[in-house]
Amino acid sequence: MLLKICGLTNLDDMHFAEDAGADYVGMILVPGTPRAVSVSAAKQLIDAARSKTVCVVRNLALAELNLLVDELHPDVIQLHGGETPEYASAIGGVEVWKAVKLDSEAALEQALRFPASMIMADSGGGTGICCRWDLAAKLAAERSVLLAGGITPENVLEAIDAVHPAGIDVSSGVEKCKGLKDHNKIKRLTERIG
After folding, report:
1. Percent residues over pLDDT 70 in the chain
2. What pTM was estimated for this model as a whole?
3. Measured distance CA(121)–CA(23) in Å, rounded
4. Sign of CA dihedral 186, 55, 33, 128
5. Among candidates 103, 101, 106, 108, which has minimal Cα distance to 126?
6. Which residues pair with 95 in a beta bridge?
7. Are 26 and 78 in contact, with CB atoms under 8 Å apart?
8. What does R_g of the chain's alpha carbons equal in angstroms?
9. pLDDT tens digit sequence for 10-22
């Protein structure tokens, strides 16, 4: 079970997440969102990371995204906006994931066809609300899925059992406040998924 801990803003939280077993650590590069970090802060985190790194972006111009990839060298770019399949296919030099607000059969159909190596089944991003696990399970039967949205130490095993994803993505579910992780919650979550 892959584990991504996202919304990281400082080295202490990132290294704790890595020591606890996170396969991926995520930084949000969407200005104006509660867990956003600057490009320079993301570079500091990525340069110090031992786990694979994910940069979350939303609706950047393709040229701007390519410059960001060249500067930061993340392992993964996670698209979290209205990016098209054509846009995703034009990204080079980095693995591409796509977050999908999985709230309808139409969203499921789009997710099934989207050109990305991982689809993140979410409820909208940063809401702490679970997506529709029934739709996520259908998606996970055919694609590599990272289940996100409202995952906590308390419901993680239920979520995994319901969806059978390739992995889980947590952010608000292991926080003490927006942008700062609760190390006890991270520890409890990683112990439960073993």
Report:
1. 99
2. 0.97
3. 18
4. negative
5. 101
6. 76
7. yes
8. 15
9. 999 999 999 999 9
Which residue's entry shows tokens 């952010």?
171
- In whole numbers, what is the pLDDT of the chain averaged over residues? 96
pLDDT of 151 > 70? The answer is: yes
Residue 122 a catalytic site member: yes
Backbone angles phi, psi at 35, to 5 degrees: -110, 15
Q: Could you identify the residue written with the tokens 């500091």?
A: 44
Residue 53: strand, helix, or coil: strand
Q: Which two structure tokens, joined as six digits, stand for 67?
A: 């410059």
Q: What tokens appear for 28 in the block?
A: 């949000």
Residue 99 main-chain phi, psi, to 5 deg: -85, 135
Report helix angle 39-48 to 11-20, nearest 10. 40
In the residue annotation, 19 being an active-site residue is answered as: no
- The alpha helices in 28-177, defined as continuous H runs, are 39-48, 62-72, 85-89, 105-113, 133-140, 156-163
CA 86 to chain centre: 21
Q: E strand or H helix at 27, and its extent?
A: strand 24-28
The total of other beta-carbon atoms located within 10 Å of residue 179's CB is: 19
Q: Nearest to residue 189, comparing CAs of 161, 165, 166, 168?
A: 168
Q: Determine how many CB atoms are found less than 10 A away from the CB of residue 137.
A: 17
Per annotation, catalytic residue among 13, 55, 122, 130: 122
Beta bridge partners of 121: 100, 147
